[in-house]
Write the structure tokens for this entry.
Amino acid sequence: MKKIIMLASFGMFATLLATAQSGDSFNSRDGVTTSEVKALLQNHCWSFPDFDVNQNGWNPEIEGDGAMVSGPGSSSTSSTGIYTPVLDVPGVISISFKYKFNSSFSSPTRRWIKIYLVNHENEIQSELDNVEFSNVNATTVYSYSKTFTPVGSGAYKVYINYQGTGGETRIAIDELIISAPQLYASGCNDAPVANNDHFTGTAQRRAAGQLCSNDHDSNGDSFDCYMITGSPDGTVTINPDHSFQFTPNPGFTGNSTQFTYQICDHGFGPLCSNEATVTIQFPSGGFLPVSMIDFTGVYRDNGKVEITWTTTFEENSDKFVVERSFDGTKWEAVGSLKAQGTSSTKKLYSFIDEVGKNTANRKDLYYRLKLADLDGKVNISRILVVRVYNTQSTKMISVSPNPAKNDIVATLQLNQTSVVVLKVVNNTGVEMMRKTKKLEAGINKVMMDGTSQLKPGLYILEVIVNSKERMMVKLVKE
């Protein structure tokens, strides 16, 4: 039996005495023989130059059926040894292991180990210990256990280096325990994921928007955005904040254009995503004078609903007319705001609709914007659906955009910590996707990742809060 709890990458969290730790006993496990253990660990970002489990047929029998055994000590080099995955070192670190030699030796034969902290590229950052062995008995199992402080906090690997001169005495290391958790659950950094985007340009074949809003890194690492293939129809500029601008070539009159990008994280070591395709469409039935994002609604008490939206680009824009409907069919104007005219910077707009308590409570409120330009052309935004609850747990839920091309975003205004379930079902009742999240009191935005990949058609988006409050919205996927 192993005396340590194995790595999280094998289905269990590396915890011992309620403290997050890392390590391995190098034994066989379910579905994995001793001859396969090294490869399994290497797949989780361990490294073992000139070491292998029970190498050359020697089972040291320290604990269990396996131990990590070196090659001949006389052939060892400064790179020989055991490298852990990247660990989250908190400023102090304890290292312990059992070890044994396959033959006795004494002077002039020499064997020693050095223990280092190294970075993700295996470059030595600090030496923790240097131990030389003497008068070794081949039948004895020895123990090593030390605590090092201070060592500085950060992302490091532990490297146990084995070297020697004279003879061919090998070392076996077993029951390795390190008092620092893996930085990544699997041991390795996972590549971020980039998803395709769709944007609408202006009549002048210009466009701007925010990339990466539907991209993610499962490890929570920050990332940068890089263009891979530019548009053949113009110039694309991607800015450090992940916004972009498209400027057409002279004479370009097409209805759409594309470019591709990828994101690369700041992990240990850094990885890049798949390529994502950005499609910019210039619809023939009139062109939006603005590029708009974050169309959301929030309940402000006393029967007031605050509608907010952000533009990243405006050209020849005049005003926004806010329209409300109770059925999504009959619309009435409830107010307007002056637009910026022409701008390439972000602008946040806010409008208060004094709809009244009796009207707002428990009714679906549909909002849309009429975007008028200075030439008198009018375009209509996608729809925002708002439902006010004012219950113990839920104040309001809103969903946008509808119809949808990119991923749907639900805004939940909660009065208390709640468990929220979002489901998308198709028109035959088959559940296509589900997301469950625990959200804190306040305003929360939840993106339904993957709705952008649904086939065009009619769907139902269902939002459930604490198994009580329920909102169902017909969703049209374009």
The chain has four domains: 8-178, 197-281, 288-385, 389-478. Confidence is low (pLDDT under 50) at residues 1-19. The first helix runs from residue 34 to 42.
